[in-house]
Amino acid sequence: MNNPNISMCVVTGSAGFIGYHLSKRLLEQGAKVVGVDNLNDYYDVTLKETRLNSLQIHNNFTFIHADISDKSKVESIFAEYRPNVVVNLAAQAGVRYSIENPDVYMQSNVIGFYNILEACRHYPVDHLIYASSSSVYGANKKVPFEETDVVDHPISLYASTKKSNELSAYTYSHLYGIPTTGLRFFTVYGPMGRPDMSYYIFANKYFAGEPIQIYNNGDFENDLYRDFIYIDDIVEGIMKVVPRIPSGNVPHDLFNIGNNNPQKLMDFITLLEKAFSNTLGSHIEFIKVYQPVKPGDLPKTYASTERLHKAVGFQPKTSIEKGLQHFADWYVDYHNLKT
Ligand SMILES: NC(=O)c1ccc[n+]([C@@H]2O[C@H](COP(=O)([O-])OP(=O)(O)OC[C@H]3O[C@@H](n4cnc5c(N)ncnc54)[C@H](O)[C@@H]3O)[C@@H](O)[C@H]2O)c1
């Protein structure tokens, strides 16, 4: 095993996009993984089951179908498996969905995370790593976004639950000495990715013969810039963070995890078309409909990853071309679209 620090790892959200890829890597490195997921139907459950099936071929993987908002269940999992590392990725994701469905955000992201903190208090762990989000930066204008920036003005309930996770984790580190590290993920993409994210929606629209909506005014000179990071780079980053246990009076740390290399939205879309053209062996183009920039959308958002680089040598390696090619190849294969 490459990482001797992990004897037993609980990964919540293990049937999710990041949780699946992380669990796979941990298992391949010889760790024992207990995956917890409620398999909710926010998006296609079959995709979650497919991910899970591929984890279940590993003898060291145990799956528990449970909801982290169930406190006694969470405590019983910790009592039985006594993890020394916990990675909390279970959450209700999505900014827009939180406008229509606030309850599930409070339930999974706030109560659920509180239950994880409580379980770590009752059954001490070496390290709790938890998912925060770039959305905590709200409408901040200064780029790149840095961990020292003020993030007191979340503009969605999703962002507010993630900021609340950071505050609660800090408090538990302060009061009970639990080592916690928060990771503010920027947009993660790749094979087995989330169907609610734009690159996946673009692919679905293309194969359904429908136009894609692009919210950039059709102004390519002043296009939006966004931070996209490939899933393998994210997993690599988390693996580097696991053995870096925060210390000091309050053993809590917080890092951006993104690409630090903003990409023009239209370039990203063109590269996605190229990737699908390569996979299908013929030139394809999306039908594009340009819409006004959405109110509150900022021209440029991206991560400063200097802090994570200094702490663990984090350096994303995958080019957008390569990452999107992996996605397109997987998508066509998974959806049986090769003619
Ligand atoms: N993917 C990204 O670009 C991105 C960006 C920022 C933050 N994040 C955060 O990273 C984490 C993982 O994201 P993802 O992209 O893998 O999302 P995902 O939706 O694919 O995975 C989350 C998993 O958690 C499970 N889950 C949700 N609520 C649960 C609950 N109450 N109990 C048990 N399981 C529950 C879901 O069924 C799902 O399988 C999330 O916390 C998300 O907010 C992701």
Describe the structure.
The protein is of the alpha/beta class and 339 residues long. The chain contains 11 helices and 13 strands. The strands form 4 sheets. A 7-stranded parallel beta sheet has the order 3-2-1-4-5-6-11, sandwiched between helices. A two-stranded parallel sheet has the order 7-10. Strands 8-13 form a two-stranded parallel ribbon. Helix 2 (45-55) links the parallel strand 2 (32-37) and strand 3. Helix 9 (265-280) packs across helix 11 (320-334). Nicotinamide-adenine-dinucleotide is lined by residues 12-13, 15-19, 36-40, 48, 67-69, 89-93, 108, 112, 131, 133, 185, 187-188, 194.
The count of β-strands is 13
Proportion in helices:
40-55%
Radius of gyration (Å): 20 Å
The side-by-side strand order for the widest beta sheet comes to: 3-2-1-4-5-6-11
Which ions and ligands are bound to the chains?
A: nicotinamide-adenine-dinucleotide
Task: Indicate the structural class.
Answer: alpha/beta
| Unreliable residue runs | none
Order of helices and strands: EHEHEHEHHEHEEHEEEHEEHEHH
Number of helices: 11
Average pLDDT across residues? 95
Specify the biggest β-sheet: 7 strands, parallel
State the gist of this model.
The protein is of the alpha/beta class.
